[in-house]
Amino acid sequence: MRRFVDGGGILYDLEALVDADGRRVAAFGHWAGYAGAAVALMAWAAQARGALCAPVARYADSAAMVAKVAADLDQLTAPGVLIIGARGRVGQGAAALCKAAGLSTTLWDMAETAHGGPFPEVLAHDVFLNCILAGPGCPVFLPASAVDAPRRLRVVGDIACDPGAEFSPVRVYDQATDWAAPALRVHQAPVLDVVAIDNLPSLLPVESSNDFAGQLLPHLAALQVADTGVWARARAAFDRHAPGA
Fold first, then answer.
1. Sign of CA pseudo-dihedral 133, 136, 140, 144
2. Is residue 16 part of a domain?
3. pLDDT confidence of 245, banded at 50, 70, 90?
4. Which domain holds residue 154?
5. Tell me, what CATH number does 193's domain have?
């Protein structure tokens, strides 16, 4: 940031391109949710067969990913899935994957979590997918004590992936997972696995890239008028955070 300031430059951060309501105009959230739900279900299926989730790799498209999830779930009783943050981009992506795989879901958003907890319903599902954008004051959906509580819960897909953050709503783990080791076993009896991969859209590179490009292109076309709209708001964000601001 200092070098941008010293050189007379400006950093327009794509994550700071927001509309008048503060909502990002270009984001990978849908495909993060889609892929995160898929890997969490793969982890649940592996666990049901007495194993830990195998490494994952990129898929040609979402149809191939759904086919893999369906194959993993074949001959198993379908898990009960809870999605928190269901109305956001990430949550809608997670719900779309579950629907494509033929699973019913419990969909929660701000109204269902407004009371601040506790949330025993989380423990009453087989799979919990956390899809919210957390921040200070966020309620805790899954405290550290949950691992020892009576629970049906066996897999957490922390798609938001904020391990160790003081505002994280998922407190049962403290490190991210990755493609080589997608699931982290955080408790043995009863078993609890956490999937927390921070580059999930890369599992679906074609669809993620096309989607993001389609969202961004109209705003790139307006870049020549950078003192209005999303670009003016991004500039204001840079000015607020630049050294010496």
1. positive
2. no
3. low
4. 29-202
5. 3.40.50.720
Calpha distance 65→58 (Å, rounded) = 9
Number of domains into which the chain is organized = 1
243/5 Cα distance (integer angstroms): 7
10 located within any domain: no
pLDDT digits (tens, 9 = 90+) for 182-232: 999 999 999 999 999 999 999 999 999 999 999 999 999 999 888 899 999
Q: Are 96 and 114 in contact (CB under 8 A)?
A: no
Concatenated DSSP letters of 20-52: TTS-BSS--HHHHHHHHHHHHHHHHHHHHTT-P
Residue-wise DSSP of 94-130: HHHHHHHTT--EEEE-HHHHTT----HHHHTSSEEEE
Of all residues in the chain, the percent with pLDDT exceeding 70 is: 100
pLDDT tens track for 28-44: 999 999 999 999 999 99
Which positions ≥6 away from 63 have C-beta within 8 Å?
Answer: none
Is the pTM for the entire model greater than 0.85? Answer: yes
